[in-house]
Amino acid sequence: MDNDTPPFLTESLEMAMEVEDENSKPPCFSCASDNQIGGRSFSAESYLASGSLKRVLLRLDPSPNDYEEDVVEMFGFQWVTETALAESCGLLFGLHRQQIYRLENLVQMSSSDFGQAANLHSEAESIRRQCIEFLHYVKVFIFRYLEPSKVENDGMLHPYEQLEAELPSMLVEELHALTMHIGHLCELPSSVLAAFTIQHQAKVFPPSWHLLHLHLDIHWLVLEILHVLGEKMMRQVVYANHFINLTGENLTSISLFETHCGNLISDLISLSINKYIKVRPSEALTSHHYPCTCVKELWILLIQLLDHRNKGSHTECFWSLVNKTLKNIFERPSSSEKVSGFETIQCKDPLSFTWWIITHLASLYQFDRNGNLDEKKQKESNWKFVEELLKKSTDAQAGVLEEHLRMHLQCCLTLCSVWELNLSIVTILWDYYSKNLNSCFTVPWLGLKGLANISKTSLSMLELVKSCCCEQQIPDLYKSSNSYFIFLSILARMMKEEAENSGVQPWKQIKGRIYSKFHRRRMQELTEVGLQNFFNLFLMLAIVAETEDIVSRVLDLLDLLTPSSITVSQRALIWRGHFAFLLIYVEKSMDISVLAEKLSNAFREKAKEFLVTKNDYTQKQNLWTLLSTYIDGVQEVFETSCYLSLSEEKLLNDGFTMLLPACRGAELSMVLNFLQVVLARLRSVHKRVSQGLQPGNAASEAQLPLAAKEHHLAVASALWRNFFPYLKSQRMSQMPPSPQLADTAAALDIPSKALSDLQPQPVLSMMQLFGWDDMVWPQLVSRYLSHLIQNSALCEAFSSMGYTSYEALTVRSWFRCILQMFIDQPTGMLAKTDAERTVAKAYMEQLTEMTRLIFRLSEVENILAKAHVEESVFKQDPKNALVQFIKAVGRAYSGLQTLPEKSAMVAKTLEYLGDVLKYVKPYLKVKGPPEGLQLTYWIIGCLVKFWAPILATSKAQQLLFRIVDCLLLPHSVLQQDKELPAALLSAIQESLPLYLQGLSFICCQSQTQGAYLNQLLGSIIQQYFGRFLPSSPTALGAGQHPMLSALCSSITAPQMLRLRKTTLHVINENYMQFKGNAPPPRLASVLAFILEVLQRTQSTELCDIDLVLPAVLKCLVLVNELQVKKFSTDIVQYMVEGCQAGSGRERATQLTSVFRQFIQDYTAVYDHRVFSTLETVAVLDQTLVTSLIPTITQSLKDSEHKQGLGRNAAQREAYKRLLSYLAEAGQNEIQKLENETG
């Protein structure tokens, strides 16, 4: 051994060399560092990232900065750099094996003690580094110092030259011995292989980790050394002569390289099999095949090295070796071909494993020689082998399950994205799937996710197929798609990329194979699932290939089906498929008229059947399945079409005129909703096209607006022709129409500048039909008008035609909608709760919205402003809001000054009302429901009271008379012996004060009909006073009797006097007349009523004295009933006191006159009661009685004269008792009487 030292170096240079030596680490496998630093895929020390592989392949010095000194240290000894390997080859490899033994012993000594573990890590790392450095030295020595042997002329060689000449052979032997020594990777103890699972972030590794990675280093470096040796020997075969002589077996550098490559690939595949055991089919693409990144790097190194050598025809390419190894999994090798150690590999599903490993290995081709990702790098394909795999996967006898087939096709799709395209793949797959179109391709353990989905709509069918034609996350397809859809994805990718890359249209190459599988018998064998798969295939082809050619062929193929054998669900699916093709046409801006007419004709026939089918429920359901499919499909076409310029109107034929009358409930709702969607879409598209907002500015679009407008007119015409007649007929149906009817009618009517030329029916006519017609259901009217009122274009339309009554007629409809809010409620006992529940929730919400919008009309806003009504009015309950509006109109009228203004206002208010009695006639006819009667009498009562000045005019009096005749004095009321319904009586009782107060005002105002109006008022009081008068006065409470409420409310003096006078007149004439001496019925209640009026009004009027007092005084004389006497006495007291409090002599004079007549009428017979009554009055008003003394005295004398018995002592005593209350005048009269006696 040469121990020469290197030449003298300066200190500074020595320091620099030390630094360089410290920093110069030989490449090795390392997964200990963070691989993400600097964006690298592998560690900086790796064979790839360090450039080691690249230098070897480019025939550059493997380590240009190393081994530059004369002496190199290896295994603790100094060696001459240029001669060590030639002189001591066996010794050095022996020392290398000793170090491996040392590391293996350290593995046995491994401890869990952390301090000991750190020491073991350091020692094991040192051993591994020595072993790696030695093998790198061998590689450098071969590159720098080994020369091919040159025989001198005499054939004699220098001893060193002899050693040098024998070195290649010795190296082959030693490398063979080294591979034998370390054995197979997969044969390492499980405790060592377990080191693959150690976390890369660890800082301290056990000896097993170092030993495992040293094995990887040795396996790779042996290949590198053999490659460098072969390059150095000018690709001459190196024979291991000594080994051959000893064993007789052939061993060369090439055979060793190939054997070691085969063994290494077998070992790596064995490791992958162990990893695949834990991989689910659904996770195959996301689960990598290597236990750590070092194994991944080793795979990449093999790919780079083997494919590089293959270019020089040295060895087989990478895929060839892998394929050969994988074939041994399928076929157990014979003894002569047995691969050492490989027979121990067990794989339960070799086919799936092969797909998995091939796919992951293919992805490694995207790494370059430096370990960087290079997606543009040319990738070697392995299609021939994959074709064989695909044949095995689709072999019917092999019986590959769907759960595995999905994974196989996922792998195939991934390979299609990595390698160049191969149409043979499509052919193999189509041969399989064409025979299995009726299969569901489900995976049982996936549950519902794995079930075959029959698409519910044409759009969902198309979207599902379109997903096959675009870039997808292939790992997700396992659960989201079945194997058939993955096949379609493969086919779509082939079709698109082949055409894009080579310009060749692959469709022409494969369409014959596809079409040939569909003959009459095959088409008739298709189940519903088969038809779905059939459409999925051709929809995908229509997207990526010749659309019209494919659709035409599909229609021809579908004609092969026997119509009688097609089930309803199959026919619905066929229709959905047709519409899916239509959607493709639309997306490609192709005219749809031919296909649309075919579909719409079929729809017409089914709609006709639906119309004539009456009692067969099952048949109707089956037909509706088809019809609803058509409706959904047409809607999707309209929603998808960008310009509605592709003959979409062909889909809207007269089938709808037959369908609509036969629809009920949910069916009608669906059709009307469809119509609304189509209308909205038409308006939107027409507006956009009219405004020139087409996407893009291509020249081909220059003529688009004109062409589109023609189609839009055709669509609008079809809608009006086929839908409007039904809407018009339904507005007066027997049952309340659905809200959608109003929504749809409004959608047809809402004017728009963009659609003014599409509106065949004038706006005014539509409003008269749906908004202002008194015969239309209020539910429809309120919802219809709510849509239209808020549309500003509506006002513009009516203004432009000079129609001024638009707002007034709309207010009239609002009146009617509120008055008729209970029109469809039952009249039974449960009506109230049912009405509250239904009306309050649905119709009341609609009325509230309508009220809000009505109060935004300009006319209404003006009235509210004049009446100083707050903005919050419209937020109230609609009934209350209506009353507030009625009040506001009354106040606004009262504020007018000139006659023309008032006359115009009267006309406008009558226009607001319309035939109001017609609105409430249904309630009056059936005497219910109670809520309806209450609302009717209350609202119209408010009209009579608050619009009294208006109703007093000659224009409005006829309406007033009709109100009285219909509501207050109908024929049933005039029949006194007939009892009125309780609900009607209750409604009248609550609202009667409003009518009485309004009528009394009108009586005061009317110039021409005063007498008749007074008569009407009296008739009303006469009819209802007795009806609401209780049998006993105890039941008469405050506010119970409606006339009491009317008389005691705050109204103007003339109005109050008129009502009071008329009421008391009626009471006097009808309820206080004695029959002889017999009192009238319910006299006490009548007196109680009068007393209540006096008490609550706190006043005595002249009419009270004239009309009531004589009868009350008569009651005091003739009736002994205590209640009558009490009430009569109280009334007299109130009147006398009222006259004292009142101003003017008229009441006092009239009072005196009444009492004078009372004395004259009853003194003769009822002298004691007369004097008793006068005594009571004397206490209250002594002057009044004093003024009556002459009358009393004269009556006394007349009585005595009439009796002819002389002076009546008893009468005179009673009279004197009365006179004793009258102070001096009384005493004087007593003295006169006594003087007469004397």
UniProtKB/TrEMBL annotation:
Keywords: Chromatin regulator, Chromosome, DNA damage, DNA repair, Nucleus. It comes from the Eukaryota. GO terms for cellular component: chromosome; nucleus. Residues 26-733 form the Protein MMS22-like N-terminal domain. InterPro entries: MMS22-like, MMS22L_C, MMS22L_N. This is Protein MMS22-like. It holds the Pfam family MMS22L_C. Component of the MMS22L-TONSL complex, a complex that promotes homologous recombination-mediated repair of double-strand breaks (DSBs) at stalled or collapsed replication forks. The MMS22L-TONSL complex is required to maintain genome integrity during DNA replication. It mediates the assembly of RAD51 filaments on single-stranded DNA (ssDNA): the MMS22L-TONSL complex is recruited to DSBs following histone replacement by histone chaperones and eviction of the replication protein A complex (RPA/RP-A) from DSBs.
